[in-house]
């Protein structure tokens, strides 16, 4: 299967080739024909499986540049994800007269208002800022053809259910709706079916193969000595680029401060950090100027950074799914990855659950004294 078979036009195929993308991923293969045929689609696929292009490619195929109106809207739970989708969209529109607007909080609304005076065909937005524009009547969705809810489960988890309901009141009744989500729980289904017309369901299973390229180890410690254990591991491994996961913003703040004092090249990422600073941090991390990114799950949601070789779970995740999400950020594209999970005795139950789900015993790592 190639993009030509999926009826993607040559200009876009050439842009994809230029960016090293030659063949569609499973979620793209299954979703694109359904979306192009005008169907509503619920797609379940993990971050890093190519789902952004699964909805962007057919959207770009369907945009009519002779019409000066918003034809597609993508709603994303976090600013980081909105930025990433916008970057992908801007690559695809190369040489085309397609107007793309990113509308998210933390960015000057004045520049967004100025941009809205030009022809805008596609809007990528976070819920709060989008509602702000809709209330000001600076965005008109009356001629919208397609609306995408990206990371729908995360949107519900972050409390955006009412915002989504408000946004839907501004969209036409007859329009295509696409819902992409890493998990497909009852809350996501309920939300999707409420606004969808006989949706097709695409479910890309977590292949166990994704863990085949990842060496997983566990370090037993107490909470008091965990930081010391982490530093020993970091000094031994000295990874190229790494993400260290913390359970809360407070834990991330403390760990970053302590590691920085110890001379580690690190930066933290969580929702209390200003938008401009988050953008700077992500740019530096992508350029490999930062070795260790200390993040919470919510801040790291949807982030797909090539070059991440090591994932350290400083705090054990709250679910097995979250563990698989976290560690899936390394060992991408056939590369080898390494993950290390730090646990204290009270985490044993969650470790048992993880091992049972991945059908594998995680090897203990013994630190040099």
Automatic annotation (TrEMBL):
A motif (Q motif) lies at residues 1-29. Residues 226-369 form the Helicase C-terminal domain. GO terms for molecular function: helicase activity; hydrolase activity. Keywords: ATP-binding, Helicase, Hydrolase, Nucleotide-binding. Gene3D superfamilies: P-loop containing nucleotide triphosphate hydrolases (3.40.50.300). Belongs to the DEAD box helicase family. This is RNA helicase. It comes from Romboutsia sedimentorum. The lineage of its organism: Bacteria, Bacillati, Bacillota, Clostridia, Peptostreptococcales.
